[in-house]
Design a protein that fits this description.
Oligomer: single chain
Bound molecules: protoporphyrin IX containing FE
CATH class of the largest domain: Mainly Alpha
Radius of gyration: 28 Å
Shape: globular
Number of domains: 2
Length: 536
């Protein structure tokens, strides 16, 4: 017994010492862990306030299904908190208000592609490979995303590439104008085919690619206009014609740019079969990227479709709105036409320089910017790959969405004035009628997070070229009894996201052509170009 007691007493100090050491170690360990936790798990960061709906559990989901991302905007406009969370079914969503926007470019561990996957997986018919790639669950697929983003920047931003695209797009638009024979033009349909056709031909191999085919463009439009319907998980409810158009588009893309195992053979085939030497660039590099990542042929079709869905609908919607607004407002229409006529007179001996449009056609340019503000009411966002913090304070959990609706930015009276709800291009002009670059800086339509749209300069060039060519050629008036309806904050072409889609399509009457296409002066982008005007 005494031995046991001794043993016990004897062991007591040792045990106490051990406990003391352990507790110190544990304390240190806790300090280390706490610090680590602070950095990695954000124990000390603030969990944004959660906003529940009046109807528990299903409320947010029902509102979202009914209103799409404009529900996010509504919530932001009616909530004071700079950041808050909502739960939509199983999805955790953090909504971020304009006052925290300046921290968004620094947000780490987030990605754009998983969001694109959510938007397009079902509607574009992505297979397993592309879904895994866009989900970016591993480092390799994140690398592919970064690599592709770099390719887009290299392709669409340098002025030499811009000039290449602007020239080609202008020549396609001119030849489309030459083909207009009817007095009735369905403006939206015409602009879709001309603009998407031009950029498609410029990227997908000129006169040999799928975009040269009117039938392909008809199916592409039918399919893109119905992306939201195609997102329905209950496929038997989807109109068969939407599925058929998607099938035809996928088939044509598969035929147009094959996915051979042997790149050298592919190169030979391409040169022999299509002679497409001058536009190897982007698509070839993207195809190699997909192939190197082990993509099957369908994965390559998915990727092409993603590119079309990414670059087409926004420019399409915005350019159509531009034309609609000019047609809608007679005073604006007369002033813009005067600017364009003057531009032609001044440029008779030389060329129209797109980089000078803010100075030479300030009202046209201001109308374009106002279109981007007024109809750029979609929601930008990121998928949160790992726990992270915004502004060093607010916790964004792994596996959630960080979303920033644009409406609170673009309709903020404190920023745009009391007439923020009106469509008023003059807000982008100074009192003397010249373009005001400071106002343009307030636009957020090309991005808020770390990266911005690589096609933003090209988009502006495309819209300006289209407007200058169209209004130089035709005096358009609405068909009797048909007015241009300017519906605000409608859904985009690609479902809920993207620039709002113009409402019903309006058939306009085309009077005598004002100018023959052969009378056109050249459109160029001058060397000094872009940067000063077009940074948004
Ligand atoms: C008015 C027209 C357009 C608008 C409003 C627009 C807007 C945007 C926005 C908001 C993003 C996401 C940026 C981000 O959060 O990082 C984006 C991405 C992108 N845009 Fe545009 N865009 C337009 C036209 C174009 C055009 C004409 C092209 C190409 C010729 C283009 C190519 C792209 C590409 C490739 C991406 C993906 C970038 C990446 O993955 O890194 N966009 N665009």
């Amino acid at each position: 017994m005494s031995a046991i007691l001794f043993d016990f007493i004897g062991f007591l100090p040792i045990t106490l010492i051990l406990l003391a050491v352990l507790s110190v170690l544990h304390g240190r360990a806790r300090t280390v862990t706490t610090n680590k936790v602070f950095i990695e798990d954000h124990v000390d960061s603030i969990k944004p306030e959660s906003i529940s709906s009046q109807l528990p559990v299903l409320g947010h989901l029902i509102h979202y299904l009914r209103d799409g991302p404009s529900y996010f905007s509504r919530l932001c406009l009616s909530t004071r908190a700079p950041i808050f969370t909502i739960q939509i079914a199983t999805a955790k969503v953090t909504l971020i208000q304009p006052e925290l926007a300046r921290y968004l470019p620094k947000l780490k561990n987030v990605g754009l592609n998983p969001l694109a996957l959510d938007m397009f997986q079902r509607s574009l018919g992505f297979g397993k490979f592309s879904s895994a790639l866009l989900q970016e669950a591993d480092e390799a697929s994140k690398r592919v995303g970064r690599h592709a983003s770099r390719m887009f920047r290299e392709e669409f931003i340098p002025s030499q590439r811009l000039r290449h695209y602007a020239e080609r797009i202008d020549s396609y638009i001119q030849s489309d104008l030459e083909k207009v024979t009817s007095q009735d033009i369905n403006v939206e349909d015409w602009i879709f085919k001309s603009l998407i056709g031009s950029i498609g031909k410029a990227i997908w191999g000129g006169d040999d690619g799928p975009f040269v085919d009117e039938d392909f463009l008809t199916h592409l439009r039918h399919f893109l206009l119905n992306v939201r319907a195609l997102n329905n998980p209950a496929t038997w409810f989807i109109d068969k014609s939407f599925l058929e158009s998607r099938r035809i588009v996928r088939e044509r893309l598969a035929q147009s740019l094959s996915f051979e195992e042997d790149p050298a053979q592919g190169e030979r085939d391409r040169q022999e079969n299509h002679g497409r030497k001058d536009d190897e660039g982007l698509l070839d590099r993207l195809r190699t990227l997909c192939r190197d990542h082990g993509a099957p042929p369908e994965g390559w079709i998915d990727y092409q479709l993603l590119l079309i869905a990414g670059l087409g609908p926004n420019i399409m919607g915005a350019a159509t709105w531009l034309v609609y607004h000019i047609l809608h407002d007679q005073r604006l229409s007369a002033s813009v036409r005067r600017e364009i006529d003057h531009l032609h007179e001044e440029s008779r001996e030389s060329a129209i320089d797109l980089s000078e449009v803010p100075a030479t056609c300030p009202l046209l340019y201001a109308t374009w910017l106002e279109v981007l503000r007024f109809h750029g009411t979609f929601t930008l966002g990121r998928w949160v790959h790992e726990d992270t913090t915004l502004a060093g304070t607010y916790h964004l959990p792994k596996g959630s969405y960080a979303l920033a609706p644009l409406t609170p930015h673009h309709f903020d009276r404190a920023v745009w004035g009391d007439d923020a709800d009106e469509f008023r291009p003059e807000r982008f002009l100074k009192k003397d009628g010249t373009f005001d670059p400071d106002v343009k800086k307030k636009l957020r339509v090309f991005g808020l997070f770390g990266s911005v749209c690589p096609g933003r300069f090209l988009a502006t060039n495309m819209a300006m070229t289209l407007a200058i060519r169209l209004f130089s050629t035709f005096d358009m008036t609405c068909r009797p009894g048909e007015g241009v309806r300017i519906a605000k904050r409608t859904q985009g072409y690609s479902g809920w996201f993207g620039v709002a889609r113009p409402g019903d399509f309006h058939v306009c009457h085309e009077a005598e052509a004002r100018r023959k296409v052969t009378d056109y002066v050249e459109i160029i982008i001058h060397q000094k170009c872009q940067k000063s005007h077009d940074r948004t």
